[in-house]
Amino acid sequence: MNASTSPSAEKNQPGPYDLAIRGGRLIDPETGLDATGDVGLRDGRIVAVGKLDGEAARSIDAGGLVVAPGFIDLHAHGQSIAADRMQAFDGVTTSLELEAGMLPVARWYEQQEAKRRVLNYGAAANWAFARIAAMTGAELQPDLGYMARNNHDKRWVENVATDKEVGDIVALIAQGLDEGGIGIGILNAYAPGAGVKELSEVASLAVRYGVPTYTHVAYASNSDPRSSIEAYTRLVGYAGSTGAHMHICHFNSTSLQDVERAAALIRKAQAQGLKVTVEAYPYGTGSTVLGAAFFADPAFVERTGSGYEAIEMVDTGRTFHNREEILAAQAQDPGSLVLWHFLDTEANPRHRDLLDVSILFPEGAIASDAMPWSLADGSFYEGDAWPLPKDASAHPRSSGTFTRFLRHWVREREALSLIDGLAKCTLIPADILGESTPAMRRKGRLQPGCDADIVVFDYDNLTDRAEFKAMNRPADGMKHVLVNGEAVISDGALVTTARPGRPVRRPVKRAG
Questions:
Q1: C-alpha–C-alpha distance, residues 179 and 409, integer Å
Q2: Which uninterrupted H or E stretch holds 327?
Q3: How far apart, in Å, are the Cα atoms of 303 and each of 219, 256, 263, 307?
């Protein structure tokens, strides 16, 4: 950001303030601020940091607590009131659906406004949905169940698109960008049949609109052909040949046990000036739908380094023994959520080292890949109850990604300083989006002129509590979480009436 647009160029304003946060340890990763002081808020914005000049209608005593920008999650599939509330306890104030995205984009934003969301929200334009519509004729519906409902028609999964279909795919994505989509979500692994020509056209579209792409790379495998390294090399090629900003989703789970080689390739690409960025979540277990194509690969065990018993149904806890069982279950219910334990970080020191490579990657963001909350009958939970129903499940990362990272990698192991750890949760994700989405330039920072998305937490006791057998336990340690200046957590308790979330959206192209 240049000085003319950076909030740091703004000066402190005098009171009165709507709210004063007093006596906390203020941390702003962009300016390097790490000092005791106060923060003054007015009309949903930060207007003063450090020393306040004037009175406030209300005050928060932050003595002994850390005051930081709210966390920005680039990769959150929940997108519901229940998901927002659980993520608020994890320090998240902005929850974005970028890896998948949505189509139609305008209709999705209308739906979220009608929900009255707790956290700020936004979505990319969904390439896979555009592929389904262009190649099968299915009517677009802006929800993740759209893929599962159309999984019976394998053309969009396995086939190379015709020239006409590519044109239709690109046109549908462009319409989503015109409607305010904040980039292009590319679920390449869910449609591995897509050709390089098609994806290069999509990357060029991203360049024309000046937006990033967010890619689940085509392959997750330790061996050629169709290895993770091949997938990353393709992605770097798209960045180099088109100039697109290619963002890599869940760097940990798609690199598997080749993450060191993958990281070396990405660092080299970045050193050459290519726009390639990464994110990772702090778990060795992924989550996806049972119908994911790579589970059916006859060489799944050899290619991934994990057996079928590493695949676990979320709703029943069932694991599998062979490919035949997987194929039968996929035919019955491809949309069911499953856990995939691709690394054993509890028992295997080597696997812990591999996870470190992705989590500690320089300038990489922390992002949760938070899954929707589902009930024992397999349906997504869209209710308003708090606490969540006892049978609600998702993945521990839906509850504790950011607190787990700060507890384990920052506080306990001291692999990063607190300010550098917070940058991975705030400034880095904001900057990934800042060039293309003006609203993000006011987030991820604790400065005058920025949005009052703020966390106040007990660093010494900050911890995740969710486990694989108890996923819906909220994290501990967040004492106050403010979204646009309004408390969604106050004195450690959820404010159940709070609905301050606002859309994060690029300017909408108006017809005519």
A1: 39
A2: helix 323-332
A3: 10, 10, 19, 10
Start-to-end CA distance of the chain, whole Å, equals: 31
Cα distance between residue 203 and residue 158, in whole Å:
20
Note the pLDDT tens digit of each residue in 103-157: 999 999 999 999 999 999 999 999 999 999 999 999 999 998 899 899 889 999 9
Number of C-beta neighbours around residue 414 at 10 A: 10
Kindly state the average pLDDT of the residues 449-456. 98
Strands 493-494 and 120-126, sheet pairing = unpaired
CA-based nearest residue to 200, from 236, 160, 241: 241
Whether the CB-CB separation of 482 and 60 falls below 8 Å is answered with no
Q: Return the C-alpha torsion angle 155, 156, 158, 161, nearest 10.
A: 90
Token pair 């320089």 is found at 362
Buried b (16+ CB within 10 A) or exposed e, 45-70: bbbbbeebeeebeeebebeebbbbbb
483, 512 Cβ separation under 8 angstroms = no
Nearest CA to 509 among 210, 181, 202, 245?
181
pLDDT in tens, 380-395: 899 999 999 999 999 9
**Do residues 485 and 452 touch, judged by C-beta distance below 8 A?**
yes
Give dist(CA 313, CA 336) in Å, integer.
7
Q: Chain-centre distance of CA 2, in angstroms?
A: 26
Dist. CA 454–CA 49, nearest whole Å? 12
pTM of the entire predicted model: 0.94
> Tell me: the pLDDT tens digits for 31-58?
999 999 999 999 999 999 999 999 999 9
